[in-house]
Design brief:
The chain is an alpha/beta fold. The chain contains 9 helices and 7 strands, in the order H-E-H-E-H-H-E-H-E-H-E-H-E-H-H-E. The chain has helices at about 5, 25-35, 45-50, 60-70, 85-95, 120-145, 165-185, 210-215, 225-235; strands spanning about 10-15, 35-40, 75, 100-105, 155, 190-195, 250. Helix 2 (about 25-35) packs parallel to helix 4 (about 60-70).
């Protein structure tokens, strides 16, 4: 924990924290260990329609992990495809924990399809969740932020995966621009905003063939872990990370 955080634990809102092995949960744990109280969002219907399914007991296990680091925590079920959801989430978090100092966006819609087989419905849902919700969350954060100048943080997880994954990659490209705009448009608040591309992270969705192939494309010969991403995000949210602003950061172990 940093000296600045010992007096009072600031509040981080981390979206997309639905599974114990997910990147969102890893980031929530890292922030809790570094002295933050942590609010999380999750959306069970998304997990239910994906191959991994809903993880029983995940919310309780994550809350227990965070509490073990001394963090107050709250979990909010949030359908971020609904444009009214970001305001509702902030209302609930502020009521339960107080004002949000760091907004970390790990939520996503990710259903692989290409140029020729993507449906209009799927395309629109990807942009609603990955791009529009990112804008609305940042907008809500900027309207409500009252922290000391230089303490505010916005971090969004992005991806450069586009081939065979058109709606996901295209909507993440929009997310990048929205986040970089925030670095300038929230400058009067002293808020930094960065996008982080973590590369291939093994959170249980990869096939054995994919694990072997992507491990071989990384100099260290391994896949990324949620902890790898959490370490960078925790640094960006710390006082020491405040000078990094408006960047799209590759944190992928040299993946190429």
């Amino acid at each position: 924990m940093t000296n600045a955080q010992e007096a009072a634990r600031p509040v981080a809102l981390v979206t997309g924290v639905g599974r114990t092995i997910g990147i969102g949960a890893g980031i929530a744990r890292g922030l809790a260990a570094d002295g933050w109280d942590v609010a999380c969002t999750f959306w069970s219907p998304y997990d239910a329609r994906m191959d991994w399914g809903v993880e029983a007991g995940a919310r309780a296990a994550i809350a227990e992990d965070l509490a073990g680091h001394g963090a107050a925590t709250v979990a909010v079920e949030a359908d971020l495809a609904d444009p009214d959801t970001p305001a509702r989430v902030f209302d609930e978090v502020e009521r339960r924990l107080g004002g949000v100092t760091a907004l970390v966006m790990c939520h996503c819609e990710s259903v692989a399809s290409g140029l020729l087989d993507t449906s209009v419905e799927s395309f629109d849902r990807h942009f609603a969740v990955n791009a529009r919700a990112t804008w609305l969350l940042i907008r809500e954060y900027g309207r409500r932020f009252t922290g000391a100048k230089g303490t505010g943080r916005v971090v969004a997880l992005t991806s450069d995966h586009t081939v065979g994954n058109l709606p996901y990659g295209a909507s993440k490209g929009a997310l990048d621009r929205i986040t970089q705009a925030a670095a300038h448009e929230l400058a009067h608040l002293g808020v930094s905003a960065n996008a982080v591309n973590p590369g291939p992270i093994d959170t249980g969705w990869m096939s054995e063939e994919g694990r072997a192939r992507w491990s071989g494309m990384t100099p260290l010969g391994r896949l990324g872990t949620p902890r790898d991403t959490a370490d960078l995000v925790t640094f960006l949210c710390s006082p020491q990370g405040g000078w990094i602003n408006g960047q799209l950061l590759l944190s992928n172990g040299g993946f190429a």
